[in-house]
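pipeline: protein-struct stage 2 | run 1193 | Trehalase
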Amino acid sequence: MQADAPTDARTLPSVETSEVEGEKPTPALATPSSVVRLTSTATQAPAPAPAPAPAPAPAPAPAPAPESNAGAAQPASPRDTSPALDQQDDATPPVQAKLFNRLPAPHAGDHPLSIPQDLRPPSIALGELFAAIHAAKIFTDAKAVADAIPDQAPVDLVAMWKQQKDLPDFNLKLFVSEHFTIPVLRSAAYSRKPDENVRDYITGMWDVLTRDADTAVPWSSLLALPQKYIVPGGRFSEIYYWDSYFTMIGLYEDERIDLMRNMVQDIASLIARYGHMPNGNRTYYLSRSQPPFFSVMLDLLASHDGQVVYTSFLPELQREYDYWTDGASTLKPGNAWRHAVKLPDGTLMFRPWDDMNTPRDESYPQDLATARQTQRNANDLWRDLRAGAETGWDYSSRWLADGKTLSTIQTTSLLTIEYNCLMVHLMQTLSHAYALSGDKGKSASYMQQAKQLQDAINHYLWDEKEGAYFDYNWKTGKPTGILSTATAVPLFLHLAPQDKADAVAHTIQKRLLHVGGLTVTDQVTGQQWDAPNGWAPEEWMAIKGLEQYGHHDLAADIGRRWMARVIGTFEKSGVLLEKYDVVANDISPTGGKGGGEYPMQVGFGWTNGTLLGLMNRYPQSTRKVLDKNPLADQPSQQPLPPVDAWDAKGPDIPVTEKSPLKGVPLSALHTEEDAQDEQPRKDAPTGANVQQNPPAASQPIPPAENGKPPVVTPPLSPAPPSPQQQQQQQQQQQQQQQKSGTP
């Protein structure tokens, strides 16, 4: 497929004049000015010249009027391939066109935030060459093509390829090897070391999964980050938005606050530069985001660094809100623009979206193959596939019109549970941050918006008969009817009334709970975000949500089952995985069949983080699980806290619980610092001998509103060794003394 060059396809006067009510004028390109606050070496990049346009991969269509649900009274039939509903939903908003028109400087070695970069995805920058590499099947993983780094400007490389490709002795594989740097995956580093138990494995994996601050590389798809960061593992060698939050839970539990703080700063820097946090730090992810967890990350960091975190990152919180609500203020009821959807009654809610409607760079051949399996408009299909990737659930029966066939995907037609709940949390956090900064008017406005959206969630997304929350098709006016663990997200973020939370607990236990934990849905489709798979972030949010509404026994039961499955797999394989089959009675060393577009991945950031959190949360269950998996419970290389060092619940994990960080009266916001910070964990040391752990120097944090410095919770020291460990240590000392001849 050939399309017009992207530089010509997206600058239309219709967007500037806003002739259709509800359409947004051209947004301004995000400038990196506020990055200076996060890292002193960053400077604003000069405005580059427009990019020359090589023959591109399929390009998005011109910007249209807002999408409407007019005339869509019935659910779309799986056999209905007409694109009438989405005929106008094929735009790339002008901001994306501006991003694509930036070119890199002709030199390298500067600070990664100080030089311009070609922000076009490789499928557009390399055009026909990108498609030819895929057609030749040179790589087993399509993502490797998108991650490969050209050795010269794409326009020059494409011209060279065109000159050579028809020669008799031309070899495309050799051409690629000579002109691209190919990413190398070192999976051996993920394997368990001798005599390493599961806790030590998680601790050791932080270093394996950590990437140093990036150095800018011309023509690379990687978006350079100013601080160290954690990648998920396997083929995912960059930072990912929602993955990072669940990884941070483990960093918090392992006292790696420095690295957790770095990751928050990295995500803030991406929001500052591009106006939103992309799916990940790759150019081909810039056209979409992922579930907006930034405000929840700040809750976690603030539980250690204090409420000053909220005011320090207020500019990025505001930019995040502006991105997700873009176009909302001028939408007419029954219309949508990007993520914003205004229902017929005027209620504002949110859907998945991607600014492009072409095959994904990281899954290019898969998307082409899916398009060949249907008579549906290819651009509409690719938009929905991209929006499905933005949800983090790529893919699931949740998004499929017929509940089973990928080509019926309808993600942009759905108001999803997670997006709307997280937007409530973002609004609440903005309200709190503005209250802390003294702006009572904005604080009240955002709290009112949060309350309105919370009410909409409990109205439109709630099904009283099923006793669960469901995604809602805003075009048909009906819920999808696909039950998923997302029904627990309103509990996780404390947005559900008690009676609805009680019903959710009953539904989860009855329909999603299995021997190894919760399946993400009760549908079996072969997609990786369906049964029989369980995923760490979903288990964590369900467990935390149930705890917060008093369903402690069910939460603990899910936690025990999930830990048994994950640790039992570690016992057999020596690695932690991305996802697990939680239905099979027998534990597979490979985690199960997996499903989806790529093989099972190891590492794995969010599994490591949430497992460590659950092991600390439920020490008695952990002890029972480890007793059945002796290899996972070998003598630790580090002192381990004994079971009896904690109370029955284990140490407090300050994430999304009701706390003084949110919902305090305005009159209480200027009291002493102790009232503004969450109390240290129960096993935290106290006293004058504890060394304070101040915020990193690269994040200047202003003083608290009352002029006093914020209280910083001291780092946790290891708990005292158990009697058994003390005995082992004494025996080792005696043996060493005997060898050395000392008394």
